[in-house]
Amino acid sequence: MSAEPLKHPVARPRPGGGRRYGAVAIALHWLLALMIAASFSVGLYMAGLPFSPLRLRLFNWHKWAGITILTLSAVRLLWRLSHPPPPLSARIVDAMPGWQLSAYRSTHLLLYLLFFAVPLLGWAYTSALGLPVVLFGVLPLPDFVAVDKEFAEAVLKPMHQVSAFLLAAVVGVHIGAALKHRFVDRDDLLDRMWV
Length: 195
Prior knowledge:
two-stranded antiparallel sheet; Fumarate Reductase Cytochrome B subunit; single chain; mainly alpha; 195 residues
């Protein structure tokens, strides 16, 4: 029996699994990636707009996207907990220095934390402003915190913005690492999550 799974916890075997994620995990990954990119882009764009009907429409879309991201994140986390990821190939594990394996795990953990933190902070900010969140214009959601406009502007808004930019930065690191594995290391890491 090999001690490799103990040496490299990310390389634990998956019963009956191959080296790729399953179709559900891949679909959730790319759908969440698209929603986050779209929501971040709309958030940046609308922040520079004057108060107008367009800004209100974009703000509503941004809130809907946030709730959708929160829901997809919960589904993805539950799926991940019940479906362990495929093991990294021995070639990848052997070629990666220990700090890269630690960064690999830490980056994924931070991504999951931010998948929840960013939309929850946005929902709290909206609630504290006293603005309703009505999903797709039909499903009213409960207020997340009590109305306190001063707290919303002084604390929740900056926390939402900083966490969104942190998420964008961590996503950038994630993409950069994937591209490094594809074009510099020329290994099969990206194939695990590619469509």
